[in-house]
Amino acid sequence: MNDSANVDIKIPLAVAIGWGVGTVVPSIMFNITNIWLMPYMTNFMGIAAAAAGGIFFVSKIYDAVTDPLMGVISDKTRTRWGRQRPYLVLGALVSALSILALFAPPSAVTGDMAVWYMLFALILYSTGYTIFNVPYLAMPAEMTQNFHERSFLMSWRVTAIQVAQIGALIGSSFLLSIFGDDREGYALVAWIMAGLIVMAGCTSFGMTAKARFHEVPHGPTPPFREQLRTVVGNKPFLQLVGIKFMMLLANSFSFGAYAYFVLRVLQETTDTMGYMFIASTSSALLAIPIWLRISKLIGKQKSLMIACSILALTSASWLLAGPGDPLFMILLRPFGTGIAASGMLMIGQSMLPDTIEYDRRRTGLERAGVFAGIYTTAEKMAYAFGPALTGFLLSSMGYVSGTQGMAIEQPESAITAIYIAIGVAPGVCLLGAIYLIKFYKLDEEKLRATTLDEAAPA
Known about the structure:
This protein is mainly alpha-helical. The protein has a single domain, classed as MFS general substrate transporter like domains (Growth Hormone, Chain: A). It has helices at residues 13-22, 24-43, 49-76, 86-103, 111-143, 147-179, 183-207, 224-232, 235-265, 270-298, 300-316, 327-363, 368-396, 412-423, 425-437, 444-449. The two termini are 24 Å apart. The model is unreliable at 1-7 and 453-458 (pLDDT under 50).
């Protein structure tokens, strides 16, 4: 393996765009389920809020096993299309099927059967997400060893995420207004999203065919337990996992309460949600080049702290919102959220291949899949606790589930619970993330100084 093989080689624009397009798959899945699935289960399938949160939690525990396993599988894969790329297509197909299972269930699925059905549908969802996302996140560490080139690569991922939000969030909001905010409307939206997922996975597979992956050493691979022990010894990686967990837990609370807050508390329509997603997507796209410049000037650590601070303040401002607020005041908050989320995504994701490169320089081993598997497990655990805690919070404060949509009258205590989920809980989590970021010290200089013979402490 040649350490300098692709350190200074720039990633072709078409390859960077192609890899970025791949994130449309998990982005659509993430946004559709985290915005609409809890309200869909509680308001159209009659599943109690606590049970809905429990279903999320159990399905994510399943991920705790499958993600690291998928990392090992992808690292050991040898095909003429590469180690990771074949899983882009397979993962996209399974993911598309899971979206149809979640939002287009048979009409006979009601009552207690609905709980078990949604649990198995979410396990299918988790399987598809894992098959796609673990190899996908492992690819950047193999595509380039250049510190800032990874930020460039991640900028295309953030761009693709915003494009995916146009389809997943903006599109679904307006489509539900057109098709009808009912089970039939959700089913039609699911078919459209499933088609977009398959197209994105296949496009990413095709456009990354000319990516230059650095050579993987052949020979005996250490047992997984030994690999895991070395991973645990990678301090920057463990710090990053903790940071990512707190940031995503904040997002999980926000996303889980979003539809409840807009439709129930603000008493707005799905069209308003569409306009809000336009505001957040627009600001996120505009902020990408700004965050790229900021991260080069002051470093990734400080930039990530700024992004988290902006999002914490924006989330807390929802406590001042209420029915009758003018639209421009409502849209200011998602505009700020988009700016913050853009920085958190781009910078946070670019730090993952840095920590993988740190491991490779320390050990001489190529284990991108193992790291990506553990990293995505932390992601999914955050999205296990977020919906579970939101569901238990709503249930404990009297939220009434049913099959009549938002027409069901809710007690004042349930409204208070929604305010807590969207305005208090995210800020608390982001303060935790900021605290952890203070201890992350892996910058470009430390990374370059790390060698197999003398691993620099980070």
